[in-house]
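Notes continue from the previous slide.

Worked example: a multi-chain complex. Inputs as given:
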Amino acid sequence: MYFSRPDFVAGARDMAPSLIGLLPFGLVCGVGAQSAGASPGEALGMSALIFSGAAQILACQLMAAKAPLTVTILTCFVIGLRFLMYSAAMAPHMKPLPERWRHAVAFLLTDQAFAAAVRRFRDSGDTRNGASYALGTGVLLWATWQVSCTVGYWVGNVIPAAWSLEFVVPLCFLALLVPALEDGPTRIAALAAGSRSWRSIRCRCGSRSSAPGWSASPRVDRRSEARGAMSPRADPRSSRRPP
Amino acid sequence: MLMAIVIPAVVFSSPGVLAFSYTNPKLVAALAAAAVAWYTRNAVATMTLGMATLWIAQWVR
């Protein structure tokens, strides 16, 4: 028996502050899935299985742009690469656990939970306590994530546009990106991607802004800009349809 | 590639209009968020403070 209730509760309690950031992010993911044309089952299944805001939003955008399936999967994979590192750091602590436990904790791993759980494993030195703690963090975050994604899917569009809630998306990507800009090559790659997107959008907007029926919704426009910015591959005309 | 999503979302105040100035609340908020991300390396802090900055900047403007 590996479950320790006090540690499970402690894990959930320590994650409570990060729900402030998680809730609006989940709402945005729900809105993103809904506006990308996903069915309720697809949207909820996506958040239940992927359990990663950045990957979900990107996947929605790429699917809505009819990008090839391989591109979508590869993109999500690259975004999730940091979890390879997290898992490797957790692995030595998790070794004595049964496979069932390791799989559960690995599936529920998130950035915040990782930082807290590794600290716990190190401090307590007891696999049982650490594992229950990690499970507590994961269960709370996963459950909250499902609720906020569901709420976002159903009611996201009634949130006033003045709140600019969709701005959470670029902020999330900044949070992933900025700490990674540690060496020269990464910085140059980021600069190139940024300036490339900026140029392609400028051209696009020049030709489109004169067109009648230009949409007035900032949310929709921003998404279409982001989609156009992704790469020429995201252009529906040049992309192969996913099988 | 993430930068290609962030930049357009930040520098366009309205479609097709570039706003590279301190009166663009999104640019102000993104710069603040980038600073928070760099120093804290915490995604939740970045998003919370970024949104707070955005709302304050929108209100001040």
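Summary box: The longest helix of chain B spans residues 43-60. The mean pLDDT of chain B is 78.
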